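Technical annex B. To support the medicinal chemistry partners, we prepared a structural model of the target in complex with 4'-deoxy-4'-aminopyridoxal-5'-phosphate, based solely on the information shown next.
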Amino acid sequence: MLYQRSSALFQDAQKYIPGGVNSPVRAFKSVGGTPIFIKKAEGAYIHDEDGRAYVDYINSWGPMILGHTHPDVLNATVEQMKKGFSFGTPTELETEIAQLITSVVPNVDMVRMVNSGTEACMSAIRLARGYTGRDKIVKFEGCYHGHSDSFLIKAGSGAATFGNPNSPGVTQGTAKDTLLAEYNNLDAVQELFAQNTDEIAAIIVEPIAGNMGCILPNDGFLQGLRDICDTNGTLLIFDEVMTGFRQAMGGSQERLNINADIVTFGKVIGGGFPVGAFAARAEIMNHLAPLGPVYQAGTLSGNPIAMRAGLTTLNLINNDREIFSRIDNATEILATEISKIFKEKGIANHINRLGSMMSVFFTEQNSITNFTDVTKCNHEIFNKFFHHLLTNEIYIAPSGYETWFISDAIKDTEINKTLDAVRSFEF
Ligand code: PMP
């Protein structure tokens, strides 16, 4: 049996951990079967407990842009550990990483480090509310901004995969301040502003969405949001947890040439350690404690080991900007070739891709631009495709509502192995 030890470990895990996992999508619930338990990872590969090595297109859901256990990040982090694990005091390292981030990310003067993307987005909307003195926010159907209460309303990612986009436990009082619009639909946003004049603190958006599968912003969509925000005294928050330091060193702001007012980060910024961050111009960040009244804090925020891993990762990328064209090209080859193979096989599909993020949708439609489009795709074929790839030691996200993340460790060997597996797919 391919997944014998994983299966036994999953049985045990379910006794002590809800669903056997510490984050829902890991449970393979929507695709069925046994989640593979991972023992170690190196470069482009993760190795499971049954001794199989998979080409990894999840890359810890985005952080491992350099591939796993990059030697420089490993060495720097181990050296840092020898100096102590956590101090709860300021360190020089935190200034170094903040300086680097503000020098490469457009339109931000200051950055505050937190421990996850959830915290970054949760804190960003508190700051926007404190800054504007308004309560409401606009979010888009199928976008995911972490699991804090305000965002679990028509949320993407696992919430969409499991059919619980609106989580019980979120009070109506909280939910009423989250206004919803369809992604890529500026008219819907205009309408919300017309109905809630001077009440909307912020629009939060994934500038390139990755949590309902990969959905690209239509031409003019983000600029339209920018204009609406400017007209209404509302802040534009780009959730760059997935896209930051992946779509470009300056994230989507740089790649798509649109400025946001607050930017949130996670994933790549921590190099695989639990880190998130939010950043903005000084006039906004000055409202944050201890300078201003908007409270935000964290026992382990700016943890030296996480900062060292993040700083080393960001420096490696910053000093080798060719990485972006390498991972973009690898992803383009995958997208083009997979599409060609499916066409030959007569399997209806549409692939969305920008940079090193992509999703394969099984559909007759020739564009997939919002959450409703994704729900109409054939998720049964996706599940078969997922299991076929897994059997062939190719690891993509176990849901049609997620994106592939390509790392710099994925080279021709891995791409060819992947395409061979796609070629043998029958449904
Ligand atoms: N925002 C986006 C765009 C994300 O993709 C995620 C996580 N996938 C989050 C926020 C939440 O980050 P975390 O899981 O680190 O809390």
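Notes passed to the chemistry partners:
The domain at 4-61+321-403+412-423 is CATH 3.90.1150.10 (Aspartate Aminotransferase, domain 1).
Residues 243 and 252 are 6 Å apart (CA to CA).
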